[in-house]
Amino acid sequence: MSRRHALAAATGLAAAAVLPSAGTSRAAAATYPNPVIWQDFADIDIIRVGDTYYASASTMHYSPGAPVLRSYDLVNWEIAGHSVPVLDFGAKYDLNGARGYVRGIWASSLAYRPSNRTFYWLGQIDFARTYVYTATAVEGPWNRLTTISTPYYDAGLLVDSDDTLYVAYGNTTISVAQLSPDGRSQVRTQEVFRTPSSVGTLEGSRFYKINGQYYIFLTRPANGQYILKSSSGPFGPYTMRQVLLDLRGPIPGGGVPHQGGLVQTQSGAWYYMAFVDAYPGGRMPALAPVTWTSDGWPVVQLVNGAWGASYPSPVVPPPPRQVTPLTGVDTFDGTVLKPRWEWNHNPDNSKWSVNNGLTLGTATVTGDLYWARNTLTHRIQGPTSTATVQLDHSAMRDGDRAGLALLRDSSAWIGLKRDGGATRVVMVNGLTMDTNWNTTGTGTEAASAPASGGRIWLRATADIRPGSPRTGTFSYSTDGTTFTRLGPAASLGNDWRFFMGYRFALFNHATQALGGAVRVARFELSTP
Fold first, then answer.
1. What's 3's DSSP letter?
2. CA angle 124, 257, 277 (to 5 degrees)
3. Is the sign of the CA dihedral 322, 323, 326, 332 positive or negative?
4. Contacts (Cβ under 8 Å, ≥6 apart) of 343
5. How far apart are CA 146 and CA 63, in angstroms?
6. Do the bridges between strand 224-230 and strand 213-220 make them parallel or antiparallel, or are there none, so unpaired?
7. Predicted confidence band of residue 347 (pLDDT cuts 50, 70, 90)
């Protein structure tokens, strides 16, 4: 587990929240299933502002980073924006001489400060320093407020009832920092807790003040959750209690729910949103109700000794509108990408555009997809889903490669190869990385067919249920109706060490010279 402790890895409660009784809130008639989101959103931090819930998640090397999800009922979620507009932390995040795979946006914190009606995102990058971004609306614009020299590892940000900003952070040794009133600098920092050797590693801090008590919510990767409590102020001393350990999760074959946050509904009920390791798809958010003991400790409500596969729905006011589904059709209407999309590393913005369709110009000359800039990714919907892309390839040039991939450290794709003035549709597998994220295989063509005309439909179907090795399959169509299977099934690796799950990815790169382009008219993510 040493690498997970090194790599894997906040606030969200109203500062003056009232401690509820140990009883449960009244149940709604309907129930919700777990996971509440069967897409890859890890290291959740969750808050409520008024009648709206927000959550943030890790995105590693994907750009823009730190997506902000929005919900009105804790069950149905949409992607509203990103707290980190561009990963401007060095050339490696541009695929410029180096690569940032499994770096970038790790467990971070999202908070809201009522005094200035501002959202705060805080996270450390590359163990070097901490960045703070702010916005008055989660859609943005988000702007960098400051850079702090102390790297707050797996941080949780607390806006106290007197408006003071505190940060809980650390791995095994947990510290608390106080920030300046403007949030731009560190005033003091102090170690507040050292994890007993019998527990092991604790990290993933979330920092709360509830009924005058200070709580630091911590994860034991990847099978436990603990909480620290102080009655003497944010700097402790703290006492520790186990919240869960080796608890059966709601996804068959998946892991123990852990590393998330607590949130209180408008009616006073409490919930814990954690993630479940469920590779090859990633880490999926699950939601469970929480009650409290008379002496102020949280208790996760179980179903038959496990995290429930379903619970009564939270009792909340009717939503003001329906959230935007995480699946469905995107015709790239308008002139900006919707927040469901994230690039593999930062894109070259001169080589792509959206104008009622997505144009991807070649941005890199390479034979290695892992080095190719402007690869645009979309999370896969579990347990199984299909992506279908309508692609105009008439402007491709010799040596260009464009298509639809299942992207991770072991990848495969279907797409077009243009060579010697002829275009073929191909299925390629065997794109691989080692555990240092260096390329070990650039792919082998497993099947091909002639591609006439300038338009084609490409399809990838992925089974991302955890457990035994799963597969992805590829097909193509010349009319958008009748699809022909191409190539063998691709095996989807389920090792956790890449952290991010598989994604659908649209790409176009050159192997000879820049200048070619493809146009995506339509993308559809559908489930059976």
1. H
2. 70
3. positive
4. 62, 63, 64, 374, 375, 376, 377
5. 20
6. antiparallel
7. very high
d(CA 130, CA 141): 20
Instruction: Report the alpha-carbon distance of residue 306 to residue 310 in Å, rounded.
Output: 11
Q: How many CA atoms lie within 13 A of 402 on its CB side?
A: 33
Residue environment code for 23-62, b if the CB has 16+ CB neighbours within 10 A, otherwise e: eebeeeeeebebbbbbbbbbbbbbbbbeeebbbbbbbbbb
Cα within 13 Å of Cα(362), Cβ side: 24
29 pLDDT higher than 70? no
Residue 519 pairs in a beta bridge with 359, 392
Q: Which amino acid is at 363?
A: A
The two structure tokens encoding residue 148: 């702090």
Query: Rounded to 5 degrees, what are φ and ψ at 384?
Result: -140, 145
- Return d(Cα 363, Cα 207) in angstroms, integer: 42
State whether the Cα torsion 355-78-62-176 is positive or negative. positive
pLDDT in tens, 184-233: 999 999 999 999 999 999 999 999 999 999 999 999 999 999 999 999 99
Answer yes or no: is pLDDT of 259 > 80. yes
Please state the separation of Cα 24 from the chain's center in Å: 30
CA distances from 367 to 127, 240, 373, 458, 512 (A): 32, 52, 12, 21, 9
By the 8 A CB rule, do 365 and 486 touch?
no
Separation CA 207–CA 515 (nearest Å):
50
For the chain, report the end-to-end CA distance as a whole number of angstroms: 36
DSSP-derived letter for residue 91 is: G
